[in-house]
Design a protein that fits this description.
Blueprint (H helix, E strand, L loop, with lengths): L1 H10 L2 E2 L5 E2 L2 H5 L6 H6 L20 H7 L8 E3 L2 E4 L5 E4 L4 E4 L4 E5 L4 E5 L6 H10 L10 E4 L2 E5 L7 E7 L13 E9 L2 E4 L7 E3 L4 E4 L6 E4 L5 E9 L1
Parallel strand pairs: 3-5, 4-6, 5-7
Antiparallel strand pairs: 1-2, 7-8, 9-10, 10-11, 11-17, 12-15, 12-17, 13-14, 13-16
Length: 242
């Protein structure tokens, strides 16, 4: 059943440039949810067990990442643009900016585009409790990354001040977004770079887009964006309640 569901999902997939493939969501969701332990190992009569002592760590927590990383003389591990002063047995992970840590012991600090995590190594497994709270509060960080890769390009959620929300949109060269209409808010589009077109409805002439152009799309306005074949179209979208 699992194999058949995955084959259906892949056969109906939408491929994009490079290695990215968007499998069919409905077909993949129909795949039974079962672990290999229950689905295979507890039922098969064709398995053997071979003892092997190679050292094992499933790296299931940030403390485990520290354990398998290279350490300095004080037992610290670091990745990215990191400065550590008088720290010991700590792990610091920086993806997008300088992270400086002073006087920390047995601490984990993880900086990503989406969020920053600070925890003791002893409690690093409890990050799942934070995720549960994020889900309960319907926070976007619980369901996806700030930057989402899509068949037509990508969108990145920017820091915003409620009730406004802001997005950085990138339409890949030669691609077109699906037609969408926002019923609850007005959207202002500002072209940052590249060239393309704005289509406001079937039969309507497409509007050319160039850097500096600004378009206001009232709520319930159906539209799509396309980029020229010469390069991506970069825009900022500002949404305000209608």
């Amino acid at each position: 059943e699992m194999v058949e569901a995955c084959e259906r999902a892949l056969s109906a997939a939408e491929a994009t440039d490079g290695a990215l493939v968007h499998v069919d969501g409905d077909a993949f969701a129909a795949c039974p949810s079962d672990s290999i332990d229950y689905a295979v190992m507890e039922k098969t009569t064709r398995a053997v067990v071979v003892p092997m002592d190679v050292g094992w760590n499933d790296v299931g927590s940030w403390s485990a990442v520290h354990d398998v990383s290279k350490h300095d003389a004080a037992g610290n591990s670091a990745l990215g643009d990191v400065m550590m002063l008088e720290c010991s047995n700590s792990h610091v992970h920086a993806q997008h900016r300088l992270v400086a840590v002073v006087g920390a012991r047995d601490l984990v600090v993880v900086e990503t585009e989406d969020a920053v995590l600070v925890t003791s190594r002893e409690r690093s497994q409890d990050v799942k409790k934070i995720v549960e709270q994020l889900e309960a509060r319907d926070r976007p960080e619980a369901s996806g990354h700030r930057t989402q890769t899509l068949p037509w390009g990508s969108q990145r959620r920017l820091d915003t001040t409620p009730p406004a929300s802001m997005w950085a949109l990138t339409v890949a060269a030669g691609r077109r977004t699906p037609v969408e209409a926002h019923g609850a808010w007005d959207r202002r589009l500002v072209v940052v770079s590249g060239a393309g077109e704005l289509q406001l409805g079937e039969g309507e002439p497409a509007r050319p887009l160039r850097p500096g152009d600004s378009e206001l799309l009232p709520s319930r306005t159906g539209y799509s964006l396309s980029a020229s074949t010469e390069g991506p179209l970069e825009l900022i979208a500002v949404d305000l309640p209608a």
